[in-house]
């Protein structure tokens, strides 16, 4: 028993280290790709050609696999709280590698997100054992889950089509909200595919069922959408803030999607889950209010393209560039203005 829990503990810690590191590596890759082309936050996809971004992606996949295996060896009570270590890892690495600062209130927001998501997981209803793709399909076509799916898709479309173009660059909840809502559907589809692969390897071919291919198409669509907006969030906002908000909301929506078909929970469990969700929302609000101001992506005609380099027009009409380290304007501008108003 103790040996199994120790294996789960080690795998959970390793998973957190890999997942937390992946945010930093992908952010570095996004920055590097943004130098030679459109940034991900502006709709660019140059990061797909950047090897460093793929290193971060592979690192995240390894972390998720380790996390999945950890649940096999140890109970969720042990594994889930350790999963929150990825937030601490990403915050520390962002501080030293990306030079991103997290204020004291931001640390409080991280703590609230970790506590809230842990409370939700520990009081979530246990999942029933599922042994076939058809069984998952039966659960997925129940009215409660269909209502959740329709609501999730509607919310995601509103965020993508209306809010993302208007305030996606200034409100972190837009991009992270899309990732979290779509991510909950991703998990459900991946679970179905995992069971299909397991049963097929055991000798019961699941590829003959059309439900398997529907789950596969849903999973691919959701994963592409989720990764796209996660990259936009990482490219736009502080990594130390993106990581805890994404962890908290993704965990909350995934548990909601997993538990929506189950009933019979006690009033105390439901109350605990609501308190956990309110704690998560409080933490995300604190984190969003303490984030550093972002540099505007679009500059007007009077804003220099670089804070240290400005262009001026001399009297003979030629362009002259001055590297201005202290922010002072060249002296000839003052002389020109004085001559103009004489």
Automatic annotation (TrEMBL):
The keyword Magnesium applies. The chain crosses the membrane at residues 6-25, 45-66, 72-98, 105-125, 145-165, 172-197, 209-230, 237-260, 266-287. It is a multi-pass membrane protein. It comes from the Eukaryota. One of its GO terms (cellular component) is early endosome. InterPro entries: EmrE-like, Mg_trans_NIPA. Keywords: Cell membrane, Endosome, Ion transport, Magnesium, Membrane, Transmembrane, Transmembrane helix, Transport. One of its GO terms (molecular function) is magnesium ion transmembrane transporter activity. It is found in: Cell membrane; Early endosome. SUPFAM superfamilies: Multidrug resistance efflux transporter EmrE. The keyword Transport applies. Acts as a Mg(2+) transporter. Can also transport other divalent cations such as Fe(2+), Sr(2+), Ba(2+), Mn(2+) and Co(2+) but to a much less extent than Mg(2+). Belongs to the NIPA (TC 2.A.7) family. Homodimer. This is Probable magnesium transporter. It comes from Herrania umbratica.
